[in-house]
Amino acid sequence: MNLISRRRNYFIWRVLWLALGAAVVYLLSQAQMLSRDVLQMDFTAFYTAGESLNAGLSPYLNHIAGSPPIWDGTNPFVFSRFQYPPPAAILFQVLALLPFLTAKYAWVILSMIAVLLSVILASRFFPLRATWQWLVVCIVICVFFPLHTLIERGQIDAITLLLLTLSVYWMVRKKPGEAWLAGLAIALAILLKVYCVFLLPFLLLRRRWATLAGVICGLVGLLAVSYIHPGGRMMWREYIQDVLPRISYHHEGLIQERVDEEYIQQIRGDVGEDATIKDGRVYRLSGFNFSSNASLVRVLLDEFFEQDARISRSLLSLLVFLALSLPFIPWLLRSGAARTVDRKQEFLFWMLLMVVILLAAPLTWTMNVVWLLPFVVILISGWRDPGQAGRAIPLLVMAAGIIFATLPDHKMLALVDYFEKTWLNHKYVISEILVLLGGITLIWSMRSGLDKARDSHISF
After folding, report:
1. DSSP per residue over 308-360, as a string?
2. How far is it, in rounded angstroms, from Cα 75 to Cα 55?
3. Is the pLDDT of residue 340 over 60?
4. What is the C-alpha radius of gyration for the chain, rounded to an integer number of angstroms?
């Protein structure tokens, strides 16, 4: 029996290592190909905003008619596609000093490092003590489809993931000075994704005064630096008068004034409709197709309201946030009355609030689903003893959400004709809901287990 067991374990180890090798090769080859051959539409908007600032121009206008022309490779309107506040544009000035292709590679490397660091931070509270656990986590990361969409678009969500995970790590550790640093990280995350402000009410409820002070100081500092920046006043005026109304009322559906097609044709030349030119190099506009929505708000708008319904997207976002926050209130009240709160519960609580933000934000895209990756660590860590304190069902629900998010969607698999009008069209929203449900149930089971054995050691 021992010999059979050893052979079986040896076979499993070999399979895991081979699977990891194949997954790593696949991820790196995809990252290299997408960086080299695809425009990465979101990153080019960031990079072009930095280019404009470096040239002393507004990051919120299209300077394709300038001398030399500054263009993101796809924007046909007089306004730029950059919609972040002025401090964010200043951050991208550094990357814009690099050649575009070099900056693309650097951005992808930074994004993957941010994902790895976030996972490592999660493992500090949910330890992965066995090698096979790390192998499984790394395999899931490499094949996680939203991570591939993030690389394809060059989005910033891996950076916001690291900022928020780092802030939670500092808050939960409770070491001197780190609570204030956590606030600074949240302030920077709010700058890059404004709906991270949904964390602030819970900072109040948890009485995280030092972290709140850090958020306020961070936001004030970022505003001050951007305001005294050359052209800062002009940028803020443009952002408040032009950008915010455009985002609030129309977003990308606004019929804007287009630039002269002649300027675009001069730069693009004859490269075909599915390609463009940036920094003298031809890039494909897209690497692959995927379903883009990961917001419950958009699902509600599409499924339950007519297209011309007069409802504020921001108001609906707030209502969804309030509804999804209700299950946390009893736990908050109970934890507030307790003498101590388990660090695992506290970490899981804040990470679940990040899932609430994904669902409640009006414009959550597939790339943002990388915020679920730390839950892979939580899931695998808990799988050592899933039957403990009734945790099997929560872990299974969470696992279903992670697996569903990991798989490519119907557009990637060219199954649009079969699944476009089905619930699979909302697979990322469903994945987030499953992770949220599993996490809420898990945090309550952990609370119950702690109450039953407060004075004894319970491994999770």
Report:
1. T----HHHHHHHHHHHHHTTHHHHHHHHHHSS---HHHHHHHHHHHHHHHHHH
2. 19
3. no
4. 23
